[in-house]
């Protein structure tokens, strides 16, 4: 075995592995195995999701924290991971991308100079 992925139990017999599918949303809190909150979901990508560990919009990305100091003022926006469409966050992130129709899960926070 490669050592990656799910390992079967020694005594699992005929039991099949099962996977619990959860609905995740932007702003939802994420917890570690001990039940401690580690942050809130701030964006999604094909391989998973991004978590912010600080309070407030400024902490949503390192780029946003750095923007506005030397390189001009950074602006927090949303961006579609499928088509690249971007938009203002003034009214929140839309339920779907207005350009390609991908669901909200395909949209992530983005900073633009």
Poorly predicted ranges: 1-5, 57-61
Percent range for β-strand residues: 25-35%
**How large is the radius of gyration?**
18 Å
Percent helix, as a range, is under 10%
Write down the domain tally.
Answer: 1
Helix count equals 1
| Sheet/helix structural class | mainly beta
Mean pLDDT, as a whole number?
72
Major β-sheet profile: 3 strands, antiparallel
Based on CA inertia axes, which overall geometry fits?
A: globular
Query: H/E order of the elements?
Result: EEEHEEE
Number of strands: 6
What report would you give on this structure?
Mean pLDDT is 72; it is low at 1-5 and 57-61. The strands form 2 sheets. A 3-stranded antiparallel beta sheet has the order 1-2-3, with no helix packed on it. Strands 5-4-6 form a 3-stranded antiparallel beta sheet, with no helix packed on it. 12% of the residues are buried. The protein has 113 residues and is mostly beta strands. It has one domain (29-112). The protein is globular, with a radius of gyration of 18 Å. Helices cover 4% and strands 28% of the residues. The longest helix is centred in the middle third of the chain and has 5 residues, at 62-66. The protein contains 1 helix and 6 strands, in the order βββαβββ.
Summary tags:
mainly beta; disordered N terminus; 113 residues; 1 helix; three-stranded antiparallel sheet; 28% strand; single chain
Brief description of this entry?
With 113 residues, the protein is mainly beta. It is 4% helix and 28% strand.
């Amino acid at each position: 075995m490669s050592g990656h992925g799910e390992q079967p139990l020694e005594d699992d017999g005929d039991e099949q592995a099962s996977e619990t599918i959860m609905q995740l949303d932007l702003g939802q809190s994420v917890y570690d195995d001990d039940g401690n909150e580690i942050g809130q979901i701030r964006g999604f990508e094909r391989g998973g999701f991004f978590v912010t560990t600080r309070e407030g919009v400024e902490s949503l990305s390192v780029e946003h924290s750095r923007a506005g100091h030397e390189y001009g003022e950074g602006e927090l926006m949303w961006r579609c991971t499928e088509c690249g469409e971007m938009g203002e966050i003034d009214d929140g992130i839309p339920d779907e991308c207005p350009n390609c129709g991908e669901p909200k899960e395909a949209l992530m926070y983005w900073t633009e100079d």
